[in-house]
Amino acid sequence: DAKTTQPNSMESNEEEPVHLPCNHSTISGTDYIHWYRQLPSQGPEYVIHGLTSNVNNRMASLAIAEDRKSSTLILHRATLRDAAVYYCILSRALFRNSGNTPLAFGKGTRLSVIA
Amino acid sequence: EPEVTQTPSHQVTQMGQEVILRCVPISNHLYFYWYRQILGQKVEFLVSFYNNEISEKSEIFDDQFSVERPDGSNFTLKIRSTKLEDSAMYFCASSEGNLAGAAGELFFGEGSRLTVL
Fold it and tell me: Pick from B56, B109, B111: which is nearest to A99 by CB?
């Protein structure tokens, strides 16, 4: 299975941008890159996902390297509410019409936001 | 905004008892999942369910576990004879499409905390 590598923890000041890196050097051409986060005492929450092109949504931006071996989740202005564990996960496409590929969560990056 | 709901939020049971955790996925979703998270550890995949059958399961999902979609709205996880090590937060999730595709957003519930004494 393709694996991801993330720093164990990061720290950011409130209202500053945060760049959360993820390495996935064994990614295959059909793997999507997913980011989820888990706030304290809550279930995981979808943040963003993409395949090859950079993606933006209301929560964050996803910058994907040209060789796809790494990606960066960008929170444009960190707030205290963004303090969470952030997970970078690859989903492998198997047979698109015959079920699904479960997401396997690793340890993620624990982001602390300082007021 | 539609959400995945889970009941109960917390259940305490004696070792060896049967437990059923219930989930109501988002109504137009087709794929359903159970995950668990032992306190202080990572979120672990248990099982995925599509088209009224299990599509994938992990090593954790042994014969003591079963899932069912008894009607058009509920998705349940049953643990037949609970063990101490089953104590964990259990998360239900659903997705509209295959996670390996463009519609690959997974929606999680708030979780059901199971404590086995």
Answer: B56
Interface of B with A in 3-42 (CB under 8 A): 31, 33, 35, 42
- Reading the block at residue B28, the tokens are 């137009």
Give the mutation candidate from B30, B99, B107 for the A interface (greatest A CB count, under 10 A): B99
H or E stretch covering A64: strand A61-64
**What are the angstrom distances between the C-alpha of B62 and each of B17, B30, B46?**
16, 24, 9
User: Which tokens sit at B83?
Assistant: 């063990």
| HSE of A40, CA atoms in CB hemisphere, 13 A | 6
pLDDT at A100: 59
pLDDT in tens, B92-116: 999 887 766 655 788 999 999 999 9
Inter-chain residue contact B56 with A103, CB threshold 8 Å? no
Tokens of A3: 């694996």
Is pLDDT larger for residue B46 or for residue B105? B46
Average pLDDT rounded to a whole number, residues B37-51: 93
Residue with tokens 């393709």: A2
